[in-house]
Design a protein that fits this description.
The protein has 27 helices and 29 strands. It has an eight-stranded mixed beta barrel, surrounded by four helices. The chain has a five-stranded parallel β-sheet with strand order 2-1-3-4-5, with helices on both faces. The protein is elongated.
């Protein structure tokens, strides 16, 4: 198992930074983030960074410009740089490689591929650093009084182990023979195959000249000690290895304790959990429990008050955890040793060795949450911060410690979803849901390639003229096994993984092509229009405006007949950037519609400051409108506000004639909802249009041609 490595993620998109940093921390890395070139250079001055994952397109300084600056100071081996670039941006890739980039990944980033490339570059960095240290490592190692020395004669097979080497593992000088097996037989099973392969590579002709390897070795007290082995290879004139010699250093303290909080780290926790699991398996104990804890909103504190305050908060959290666990000691007579560990970032874990049930573990979790309620006094400020905790029972049914941690982690994320600041105990249904989500994500990656997506269209109706004036394009996924997967199942996954970008582009192209074909075939006056939803991730895309421009030009669509629907959540994070993007889109000539209007806290500000020409009343107001006077008045106010600002107002979710009549009486002209039609495939819409169909009295009325799948609710 490798040590925790430090990676700097440089990306001007906050979503990308958050997603990558969270996943990298979960993979065992220490992660720093920067939102541009200047902040990246500042972070390099403040922190020990071992590798940079660098976005190629940034506003203040491009990735290429930053790379040029870096290579003026750091070589490729000193500071590896992996560029993140668009899949089609081959020119930037070639330029970056010429300028000294070590590797690249394409966007949207496939995380397993990125993780493999990061690890490869760090391994290469380690190897090159080892090669630069010395041509003769043995002479250097022999001078180290605290290192154990070994010298392996590859011709005779004998190995010399110094007294210090033997002492490191608890042996006297005369207790071990001169066999290589004295070393190899004590290597942990999880490390042995790798070490044997490294030794084999060194012994081959043309193999590495030096060895740098970490492994766990069995001590006489029954525990494993982490050791760092360094060696040089001596070869004869023919190139055959004849001797390997070097040192062995005990690095257990560095490997098993967190330097910031002094708590056990991930390595020690997993080792202790493994011993606890084995005790359950052989019947020495019944159960134990794991609590997995993540601090709520820690990133906000870290970003707003700085890393120094963030570190102080983590130290204080560690002390409170220790006190809470100590004061909640379950059954001290049993003699178990509870363990509190920091896993990295703001994640902590607790091993309760004497917990016999999830109820007991949850009681300890409640004590921890109660202790966290008291304000933390840091740098003259009182900070209130909570935590979310997941609990899982350690039992013989588990095969590996990682399986227990996985389940505790799943429970912790359920606690986050339930509103944070609480504890949730794991149950098997969580694992089933997690597996289902993982399978869905895997299938989603192939769905575009397999042409499984289809665009449906829901009519927008002029309720005064009782005729269709346009459509909203809505994505649907026809899964070969699951059938029609609803958008609320796969859109959040697509946004988290970045797949929403190619999916969103697919919807935009399909909608523009289809509406242009319908306009040519059915020249209504005014021409039919189409609206397309933009997600948060799409709106943050650096080349969004250019992509929209290209699609409009590709199909020859009048941009005035395309509306882009944007929710208020897209605008909250960065109003200044939102204004710039919306202004650029408006300059293209496309319509801009604010979706779900009335549900945000600053809707009026959006209307006055941003160039929207249309708004959509959220369906939640319509559900109560005919029964609740307050909801009815809210709808009336929104309609009047939009009318005064010369904006088109669309009521979403019209489900019956009573709502339609009510809306018309308020002056709302346009409606959309099941009362008129559900969203249906393009070919069925075309049949209705070809039949000179119109919406009349809440029904599709087709004077020629019919469509059985269209929704035709009867008048109330």
């Amino acid at each position: 198992m490798s040590r925790e490595r430090s990676v700097l993620v440089v990306d001007d998109e906050e979503y990308n930074r958050d997603l990558l940093s969270r996943r990298l921390r979960r993979a065992g890395f220490h992660v720093e983030v920067a939102d541009g070139g200047l902040s990246a250079l500042a972070r390099l001055r403040q922190c020990q960074i071992e590798l940079i994952l660098l976005d190629s397109m940034m506003p203040d300084m491009s990735g290429i410009e930053l790379l040029k600056l870096l290579r003026g100071t750091y070589s490729q081996s000193e500071l590896p740089v992996i560029m993140a670039t668009a899949m089609t941006d081959s020119e930037h890739v070639v330029e970056a490689l010429h300028l000294g980039a070590n590797d690249y990944v394409t966007k949207p980033i496939d995380f397993p591929v990125a993780l493999a490339r990061i690890r490869t570059q760090l391994q290469r960095k380690d190897a090159e650093e080892a090669l630069r240290v010395s041509e003769d490592r043995y002479a250097l190692a022999a001078q180290g009084a605290n290192d154990g020395i070994w010298d392996w004669d590859l011709i005779s097979g004998e190995v010399y182990y110094s007294a210090r080497w033997k002492e490191t593992l608890g042996y006297q000088d005369d207790q071990l023979t001169n066999s290589i097996d004295e070393w190899l037989d004590r290597v942990h099973a999880d490390d042995k195959a790798r070490l044997l392969e490294e030794l084999t590579q060194c012994r081959r002709n043309g193999g590495p000249a030096e060895l740098l390897s970490e492994q766990r070795l069995l001590h006489t007290d029954g525990t494993y000690r982490w050791t760092m082995v360094r060696a040089v290879v001596r070869r004869n004139p023919a190139g055959s290895a004849v001797r390997m010699a070097g040192s062995m250093t005990d690095v257990t303290a560095n490997k098993t304790f967190d330097p910031l909080t002094g708590l056990a780290n991930r390595v020690l926790f997993i080792e202790q959990l493994g011993r606890c699991l084995e005790a359950c398996r052989i019947g020495e104990r019944n159960h134990a429990a794991v609590l997995f804890l993540d601090m709520d909103h820690f990133k906000v504190v870290n970003d707003s008050l700085g890393h120094v305050v963030g570190d102080q908060l983590l130290v204080e959290a560690a002390r409170r955890l220790e006190r809470a666990v100590r004061s909640s000691r379950l059954q001290p007579a049993l003699g178990g040793q509870d363990l509190v560990a920091r896993f990295g970032g703001d994640e902590f874990a607790v091993l309760l060795q004497d917990a016999l049930s999830l109820e007991q573990a949850s009681a300890v979790a409640r004590r921890i949450l109660a202790d966290f309620q008291a304000p933390m006094q840091l740098e003259g400020r009182n900070l209130n911060i909570s935590a979310s905790i997941g609990a899982a029972l350690v039992s013989a049914e588990y095969l590996e410690p990682a399986d227990i941690l996985r389940d505790a982690d799943l429970a912790m994320y359920r606690a986050k979803a339930q509103g944070k600041g609480c504890c949730v105990a794991f149950d098997a249904e969580m694992r089933t849901r997690a597996m289902d989500r993982m399978e869905l994500e895997s299938d989603l990656r192939m769905a575009l390639e397999r042409n499984e997506f289809v665009v449906y269209y829901q009519p927008k109706v002029d309720m005064d003229a009782e005729r269709v004036v346009g459509f909203e394009a809505l994505i649907r996924w026809r899964h070969p096994v699951r059938g029609l997967v609803p958008p609320d199942r796969f859109i959040p996954i697509a946004e988290e993984t970045g797949l929403i970008l190619p999916i969103g582009l697919f919807v935009l192209r399909e909608a523009c092509q289809t509406i242009q074909q319908w306009q040519n075939e059915f020249p209504w006056k005014p021409p039919l229009e189409v609206s397309v939803n933009l997600s948060v991730v799409q709106f943050r895309q650096a080349d969004l405006v250019e992509r929209v421009r290209e699609v409009i030009a590709e199909f020859g669509l009048d941009p005035a007949h395309l509306q882009l629907e944007i929710t208020e959540s897209v605008l909250i994070d960065d109003m200044e950037r939102a204004m710039a993007v919306l202004a650029a889109l408006r300059e293209l000539g496309v319509g801009l519609k604010i979706d779900d209007f009335g549900t945000g806290y600053s809707s009026l500000k959006y209307l006055t400051d941003l160039p929207f020409d249309s708004l959509k009343i959220d369906r939640s107001f319509l559900k109560l409108m005919c029964e609740d006077e307050g909801a009815s008045e809210m709808v009336r106010n929104i309609v009047e506000l939009g009318t005064r600002m010369h904006m088109e107002v669309v009521a979403e979710g019209v489900e019956n004639s009573e709502q339609m009549v009510h809306l018309r009486s308020m002056g709302c002209k346009f409606g959309q909802g099941y009362f008129f039609s559900k969203a249906i495939p393009a070919e069925e819409i075309r049949i209705l249009l070809a039949g000179d169909s119109q919406l009349w009295g809440g029904q599709w009325v087709a004077r020629a041609g019919t469509c059985d799948n269209a929704l035709r609710p009867e008048l109330a």
